[in-house]
Q: What sequence folds into this?
């Protein structure tokens, strides 16, 4: 029976075999990998991955697709975790000592940003991530300071990952075709991540980009004075999208120190 894609799950199934082959080459699965796929859907990518893997895990929310997956793959080849990837604890997936998870998926566009932030909390147990996302989202993820795409998502993810837009996927590669281009992104967790408190970085960056058209002195008014901005290497007259990751980290450390002092 043909599965009808469900809008509430953001389902657009990748069907182009050339694109699928290109993605598998980019992922380059190895037999010893512990691989987990988010949203396997009709298992187009799952099937190809399992040609190079003895076993893998998938996280799927759609009950009808879970039934289909169970009928298609034996349990010793595919472990199915039924549920919402936003709530799933990926740390529960068993990984051999000395290894880390590899995460892949065609992520639903309607939950892509919160899912990326959820996964960022696992960076210490992940070796790499390969995702299909809306092209505009990937461009924001990898954007450099000074570009219009650079913002909160860029800073928060670039703090944790080395990221690369690998290639663009057109709408006609999907069923049903989305209204936008997609792109494949490679995300490799940083092992030399700049030290700061995530919640404080989030607070600083969110406030900084809340009024993009204003200069950063005005955006961060009440959080930092002009002298503190200068001490962090930030031009008070600069716009938020021109301030680099290291400067946001410097501001966050200052914010954390002051916060710690106020709590004593």
A:
């Amino acid at each position: 029976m043909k599965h009808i894609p469900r809008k509430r799950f953001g389902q657009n199934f990748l069907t182009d075999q050339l694109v699928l082959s290109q993605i598998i080459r980019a992922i380059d699965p190895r037999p010893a990998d512990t691989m987990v796929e988010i949203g396997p859907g009709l298992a187009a990518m799952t099937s190809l991955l399992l040609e190079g893997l003895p076993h893998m895990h998938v996280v799927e929310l759609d009950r009808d697709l879970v039934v289909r997956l169970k009928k298609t793959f034996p349990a010793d080849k595919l472990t199915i975790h039924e549920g919402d990837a936003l709530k799933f604890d990926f740390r529960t997936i068993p990984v051999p000592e000395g290894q880390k998870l590899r995460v892949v998926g065609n992520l639903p566009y309607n939950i892509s940003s919160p899912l990326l932030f959820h996964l960022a909390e696992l960076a210490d147990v992940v070796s790499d991530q390969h995702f299909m996302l809306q092209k505009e989202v990937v461009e924001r993820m990898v954007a450099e300071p000074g570009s219009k795409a650079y913002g909160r998502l860029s800073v928060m993810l670039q703090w944790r990952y080395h990221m690369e837009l690998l290639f663009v996927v057109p709408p006609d590669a999907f069923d049903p075709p989305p209204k936008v281009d997609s792109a494949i992104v490679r995300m490799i967790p940083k092992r030399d991540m700049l030290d700061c408190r995530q919640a404080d970085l989030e607070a600083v960056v969110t406030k900084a980009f809340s009024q993009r058209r204003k200069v950063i002195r005005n955006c961060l008014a009440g959080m930092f004075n002009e002298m503190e901005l200068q001490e962090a290497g930030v031009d008070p007259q600069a716009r938020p999208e021109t301030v680099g990751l290291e400067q946001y980290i410097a501001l966050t450390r200052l914010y954390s120190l002051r916060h710690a002092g106020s709590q004593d």
User: Anything to note?
Assistant: The first helix runs from residue 17 to 27. Strands lie at 13-14, 34-38, 56-60, 78-82, 101-106, 126-134, 161-169, 174-175, 182-189. The longest strand covers residues 126-134.
